[in-house]
């Protein structure tokens, strides 16, 4: 048995979200790009802010309508090897309407970066934002962190490894929203997704959120699409249960009628994150 009794073909299908939408991602990626471009055209935005020395260590920041507003930070998906902050601003308008500032992060992709480096870059982006809170005009004590797919993995690992550093920098993450995320890397290592990532056994252990839970504190929402693959749904459900057993404030929900790629389009995915 390869993993949980799956054949190789079955496992590859389970970890191919596009298998649930006919295999063609083009319309959804085009929507991400178009909606993000529309957000940039209609809202004030500070683009390509450098949080590190590399040309890939950038973020885009959308100020809130008012000063000292809550901040929502989003980490994009793409199986650690695709997309950027440029296609990942589609949720900016609804967050702006809800009185929140918004930052969307870029990070170095595989094969140029190892997975651990991506986690560190996302952490560094948050630390940089904390240092710039007064200049950018948001309240660092009211922060929501969200991530979709591979971004859900990165967000979970940032919380597992850097919550103390963020707190020391003056950033309080009050809400974490993990959307159709990956929380166990073992099956990923057994599929073609791993070809550019080349996970080692040590990385599978050290970078699987299910094996490294964060300290209690923020409210967690683990959400997944009804039309995600059964394995994506199982991983989300089981990670939520691990958090619950560890004493976290956590909710789990299945978004009816949605699939892996349109789950980040409806406003409800993000609006429930508003800090109180």
Key features?
276 residues; alpha/beta; Rossmann fold; eight-stranded mixed sheet; 9 helices; globular
Q: What strand line-up does the widest sheet have? A: 1-2-4-3-5-6-7-8
Tally of separate domains? 1
CATH architecture: 3-Layer(aba) Sandwich
User: Regarding CATH, which class?
Assistant: Alpha Beta
Strand runs, count: 8
> Based on the structure, what is the oligomeric state of the protein chains?
single chain
- Separate helix tally: 9
- Shape annotation: globular
Low-pLDDT segments: none
Order of helices and strands: HHEEEHEHHEHEHEHEH
Task: Explain this structure.
It is a single chain. This protein has 276 residues and is an alpha/beta fold. It is 35% helix and 20% strand. It contains 9 helices and 8 strands. The chain has helices spanning 8-14, 26-42, 92-97, 115-131, 133-136, 150-168, 201-206, 230-245, 268-271; strands spanning 46-50, 58-62, 69-75, 101-105, 138-148, 173-179, 219-225, 249-255. Strands 1-2-4-3-5-6-7-8 form an 8-stranded mixed beta sheet. Helix 4 (115-131) packs across helix 6 (150-168).
